[in-house]
Amino acid sequence: RVPSLAAVRLFDIYRGAPLAPGEQSLAVRLRFQPTERSLTDEELDGAMAAVRAALQAAVGGRFRE
User: I need a surface site. Which of 5, 31, 54, 65 has the fewest CB within 10 A?
Assistant: First the structure.
């Protein structure tokens, strides 16, 4: 569970070059919504690391930014 993560939305799936056959690229939008204050850079970095770890454990693959 990631604190302050209010929504996750898949908005694009890409298949084709330069990806290998059977690979796909997924694009997601994350919305963080703390209730009492803005997140610090460190808190956001930690939340993103937790999201990446959870996705890696669930579906594998690799990440690009």
Answer: 65
pTM, full prediction: 0.70
Structure-block tokens of residue 18: 């330069």
Three-state DSSP class for residue 44: helix
Q: Is 50 helix (H, G, I), strand (E, B) or coil?
A: helix
51, with CB counted inside 10 A (0-12, 13-18, 19+), is middle
Question: How far, in Å, CA of 45 to CA of 59, rounded?
Answer: 21
| pLDDT tens digits, one per residue of 17-58 | 999 998 999 899 999 887 788 888 888 888 889 888 888 888
